[in-house]
Input
Amino acid sequence: MGIVGRNGIGKTTLFELIQGNLLPHEGNIDLPDAWRISALKQHVSPTERTAIEFVMDGDAQLRRVQRSIERAEKAENDDAFARALADFEDLDGYRYQNRAATILVGLGFTASEFSRPYQEFSGGWRIRLNLAQALMTPSDLMLLDEPTNHLDLEATVWLQRWLSKFGGTVLMIAHDRDFLDSSVDSIVHIDQLQARSYRGGYSSFEEQRAAQLSQQEILHKRQVKERQRIEKFIDRFRYKATKARQVQSRVKLLERMKQVAVVRAELPYRFTFQTPLRLDQPMLQIDNCSLGYGGIQVIRDLTQRIYPGDRIGVLGLNGAGKSTLLKSLAAELSPLEGTIRLSEHTSVGYFAQHQLEILNADQSARDHVVDVVEMTEQQVRIYLGAWGFGGNDIFRRVDQFSGGEKARLVLAMISLHRPALLVLDEPTNHLDIDMRAALAHALDSFEGAVIVVAHDQHLLRQCINEFWLVQGGVVTTFDGDLDDYEQSLSRETEESKKPTTRSSKELRRAKADLRNRQRNLVRRKERVENLLAELEQEVENLNELLIDPKTHQNAERSELNDWIRQHGIKKKKIEELENEWMSIEERLYGG
Output
């Protein structure tokens, strides 16, 4: 069952009530006594538990049995040991770790990450671990609050398949309409303090809801006419004694008449991406490029062109290099080899999750807009209103914004600059269904070009007419649509389950090659760390020298300038080495 409705309407509150974390003001919440509940936690305190141990902790009963086995073994109690082993087998304990590993791989983790502590992962990856633990928890009722928010397309497709095989009941809050269509058989819509159920997926709900609203509009118009007719009768005969009884009965009829609500237009967003001032042919040229971080190649031999009207979706497994490609197109990374050239009149609007934190926390949405473009107060209100910031919301500080509000503001700021090329890395995270639909419509009608990485399948189906696949360090044009790609993922999953046909000699050689690559990366990482330590100490020494008043009194001007120049050079070198260190970390641990 999918739970839908606007942000702030009470969806998460419903989950808190079901779990007993909140009590209802009125009424009761009744659950079967034996029901086990599993829930996706949005906030978990950092822990040193490794990723796989954290996920395995989801099966609390098996953990208890494991502890019983350890106690019985330690106490040399053969009877208790035998009983605990039997319980362990009954709970399918011998497949315990394999089940956890399967879930982790499905959600995009690599085997090398299984032993990394939970606290070392970034926020989005921690949410994936929380989801993995929820899936690992034996349950009759599973509560999933926006489970796809931090997933890529491949992990989203895997989760759809996992849920289709789950034998219990699922309640999920989600803003991905295609995910809902494939994962639920009914929808609960919360609106105006009421919850209504609809059979079918999200698309079916939309059709039923539209029919309801249409019927409601007819009923409302009919009721308005009826009320006007009754009110005319009352006004006409109010003071006639012979009609007193009829007048009184009609007054009571009006009082009893249940008001049919006016149909509200549910269109909170009305924005478009502004038309670029000029469109060149081509807009962007990529020639013989090698892309990566700090000298480590992620993508090689890339030659492509992007033209006005292009709608390109980037596909590829986690860690393949999708974000590296987009960062390079947005000039956040320089190519290791080759050239990326923007045409004279092409500017890039780049969206990525880290930009949500670049917003000035002390400023309002209004402040951000007037810092970029000169507008009257009325123009600012109209512009931000189209992006869902109404009334006094335009004066709220950014540090009070939700993730969805920050994402909307970043997109609004990008549109202000009138870019010709939109480079979007997971733009739908945190956005509600209405905003996602509005974004898809705006991208569809945009006159420039769009290249996007997204897990929202509806957005990809509606806007994209060409797919690029990043695989094995190479970017190719994918010959097919999104359904073809999802089927290819399914085939790869099935192939991975088949026993390998490689000889033991080939396997030993492959493992040796992997160990050598890992060893070389570790050595390079150590060298980078040593260089960083040396440079940071040199910069610290220069800092102390340059802030000392005696330096400015006694040093020659040329000598002082040289120290300042060296300070800048060393700081830039530190930045380059830090990027290289991060790249090595990604290669070693799949981050």
Notes: The radius of gyration is 30 Å. The CA atoms of residues 342 and 557 lie 41 Å apart.
